[in-house]
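*** Query protein ***
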Amino acid sequence: MTRLIRSWKDLPADLRGSAAALGAFDGVHRGHQAVIATAAEAAVRLQRPLSVVSFDPHPRRFFQPDAAPFRLMTPAQMVRALEPLGVETLFLLPFDADMAALGPDAFAREVLADGLGLAHATVGFDFTYGKGRAGSPESLARDGAALGFTVGVCPRVDDPDGLKLSSSAVREAVHAGDMARAATILGRPFAIAGEVIHGDKRGRTIGVPTANVALGDYMRPAYGVYATRTRLPDGRVVDGVANLGVRPMYALETPLLEVWLFDFDGDLYGQTIETDLVAFLRGEAKLDGLEALKSQIARDAEAARAALG
């Protein structure tokens, strides 16, 4: 199981000396997976544990605190995505003013060498780091040679069909409602995880109780209706249909993911669920009254069952 460590200072000996993949890794998409696989090869060669070094909050959130939500995953989702890749430890380092002020050489010395005691660091071909993003794979290799850790660079990974493998490409696909393209880049469906909160409970009055999850700092997918699969805390996976957005009929102040779990009867309030957005079915629409809404939900449920096979 991948351990989550939120510091690089005063680490015990068993957490130091790993071979690490460095980067933001938001989404842990197939391009990220290639960087981690390259680090894994070094870990085997050097007989060191495999780790990932990333940051929380994302540097973009630190420098642009008022920017629109953009994250593709939570730290817990990142841990789960890293486990099947053989990553033993995720170092999720706090990105604060002190971290932002470190130049490339200081970052390599204080964080990577003195703090984490890395034996090896693997980065992507376009990796930048340090104050002003002044550091590059080349400067990291020079610092590593001076500080006692080796450095590997993973070249750009291209999809055979020319698909760009990047977090920005995932965001573009999700924003457009192209969940198949997003899943191809990620290597799995795009998923939203969160605590089930109380809503207005209108769904219960028409026989469609929903599990409601606030979107928080997740990027906003295309608003509309999705075919879904939801993982429950007890491990069950339940098919369903969801509305994601502000519900034009009722004008929610903040967008919600509202999932109707098929053939499920239970209380999920206060529990964390994770919902795959498998297929985008239609955009949000303002319907003419309750009966029209009930009819549309029935059609959406039928379309979702068909999309889920």
Notes: The mean pLDDT is 94.
